[in-house]
Write a structure and sequence with these properties.
10 helices; 19% strand
Length: 265
């Protein structure tokens, strides 16, 4: 679909043996290389390469995917902006900030009149770029707040709404995104106390997949309750135990999270 993938052990083994690239090469011998699905295949393989830090190879595949979609999709198709943002992030990871900024600006211009989840991802990258350049990001932070305040945020173009960004957040060159995630989602880690504080905005869905703190990896989702203003149904999936402090409005409550999936807490 839109293609964000988690690189597991089997995928790593297949990648090292060259199986995915051989599958792409097989398709290149057919008439399918100008089809949108081939662009998706290139994108998904590029994201695997990104997680393995093979960034130049990943960027080359995304450039090809963008070219195919520019030729085969309508000018306002959501995948065109989505694909450019994936490429902008890789350029940012390797320090090509000017190129990343140019591609990110192209992605944002393609979202005019159809802002959705992809728009938020583009803004996240744009804010990170500002911070890496020591530039003022207040305008983009305000745009992100406005976007996240919407009661419901669509994800156009059959793009995966779950953003697998753990490999980006763990990259030393882009540490400021950690602070951005805390700002946008309301998470603040207190490692010495093994405590995670989560400030929830009433009426707004919050979530973060594979958030890392104090040696833990945890996924969280808070969904507003229609029959209880200011209330949330919260689910947590963690590989370790910690204290989760939930704050909504004037109310704060601590929960003891154990390893495993807890739904709801």
């Amino acid at each position: 679909m839109g293609g964000h993938v988690i690189c597991d052990g089997q995928q790593i083994d297949e990648l090292e043996r060259g199986l995915p690239i051989r599958a792409l090469e097989t398709k290149e011998k057919t008439s399918l290389t100008e089809q949108p699905q081939f662009a998706i295949d290139l994108n998904n393989h590029a994201l695997l390469l990104r997680q393995l830090k093979r960034l130049d190879e990943a960027a080359a595949l995304l450039h090809r995917a963008i070219g195919i979609e520019d030729r085969s999709l309508p000018p306002n198709h959501p995948k065109r902006a989505h694909r450019r943002n994936n490429l902008a992030i890789i350029c940012m990871l390797v320090g090509r900030l000017d190129e990343a900024g140019h591609i990110n600006a192209e992605a944002w211009s393609l979202k005019a009149g159809q802002h959705d989840v992809t728009s938020g991802r583009i803004l996240l990258a744009r804010i990170a770029l500002c911070w890496l350049r020591n530039a003022d990001a207040s305008h983009y932070l305000s745009q992100l707040r406005t976007l996240l305040a919407q009661p419901e945020l669509s994800c156009l173009g059959e793009i995966d709404r779950h953003w697998k960004a753990a490999d980006i957040l763990g990259w030393s060159a882009i540490g400021p995104i950690l602070y951005l995630m805390e700002y946008a989602i309301g998470l603040r880690a207190d490692a010495p106390r093994n405590k995670l504080a989560w400030n929830l905005t009433p009426g707004v869905q919050h979530g973060c997949e594979r958030y890392r703190f104090n040696g833990h990896v945890t996924s969280l989702l808070a969904e507003p309750l229609a029959d209880k203003p200011g209330g949330f149904q919260v689910s947590v999936d963690s590989d370790g135990s910690f204290t989760l402090s939930l704050a909504s409005g004037e109310t704060t409550k601590d929960f003891a999270v154990q390893a495993g999936r807890q739904f709801p807490i």
